[in-house]
Amino acid sequence: MAMVTPLLELRNLRKTFTVGPRAVAAVRDVSLTIHPGEIVGLVGESGSGKSTVANLVLGLERPDAGEILYQGRPLAELLTGSGRAYRSAVQAVFQDPVQAMDSRKTVGWSIAEPLVIHRAARGAALRSRVAELLGAVHLDPSLADRYPHQISGGQAQRANIARALALEPSLLVCDEAVSALDVSVQAQIMNLFLEIQQRLSTAMLFISHALPVVRHLADSMVVMYAGAVVEQGPTEAVCEAPRHPYTRLLIGSSLPPDPERQPVRPPSARREALPTAGCRFAPRCVLATDRCRSDDPVLGEVGSAHSAACWRTDVPALVEPVQG
Length: 324
What we know:
The structure is a single chain. By secondary structure, the chain is an alpha/beta fold. The protein has two domains: 8-240, P-loop containing nucleotide triphosphate hydrolases (Rossmann fold), CATH 3.40.50.300; 245-324, no CATH class. The chain has helices spanning 50-57, 75-78, 84-89, 107-117, 123-136, 153-165, 183-200, 211-217, 235-240, 245-254, 290-294; strands at 8-19, 22-34, 39-43, 65-70, 73-74, 90-93, 171-175, 203-208, 220-225, 228-234, 261-263, 300-303, 306-308, 319-321. A hairpin with a 2-residue loop joins β12 (300-303) and β13 (306-308). Mean pLDDT is 90; it is low at 264-271 and 318-324.
């Protein structure tokens, strides 16, 4: 059986920023793969490096080391010159839907802009395409004549999604695309993303700090902590049988409590200075041993297509049965 070429591959990406006198490793040896039509969720708390990964994929930042391949071709090669073909194939949906649009221009203009830039349509065909895109995200075409401040946050995000779909991309990079919305609207937008995947076979890199959001949407999940991938695998495998203590912490803090079980003692929520050796999560982990503090773990297989970077994957869970 022929191997399917991944749509996007990140191979050992590294990115360091200088903050005052310090060098901060925002991304450390991050690798992940997205196949055509697949939704990959990238989850982690603030400062984990998720948005830096998004900027690297979008070509807004260049990696210090490692490479990004799109359909088997290096991104550095694809961005030579204008990079127009790649930028039309990979589109973004950002966190703040209103700020993402020009307040001086109509909603219709914002949606039409990429079509104009790429000379994909003009005149009556352009107006027809804008109306079609608004309908595709369940907005009335009459909203094209309104300004961003005249529509709701949910409508604005739908319009941004319509704009992102204008050039028929193969990949959407969604960076906290629902976190600024009301909970009820979040559910509607998440379902819209699933509809887009099913109807258009659009792949997505869906980035969020909220594990339940990623669990609802993603086919596979990548968990980041302190710039590195600590666990990855099929979404249900990661959520039902997490093997890294940080993943378990995320799940325990976001899912309804199980009355039959209680936490042993959760890792500290304090963000202490990251260690220079060993596992970066060790200062917050109740399972940490001397080996954890001295040797940096690497991703190792813990199940089918499921891997974790932890020396203590032998420990089944951070919970124990409630004693009667």
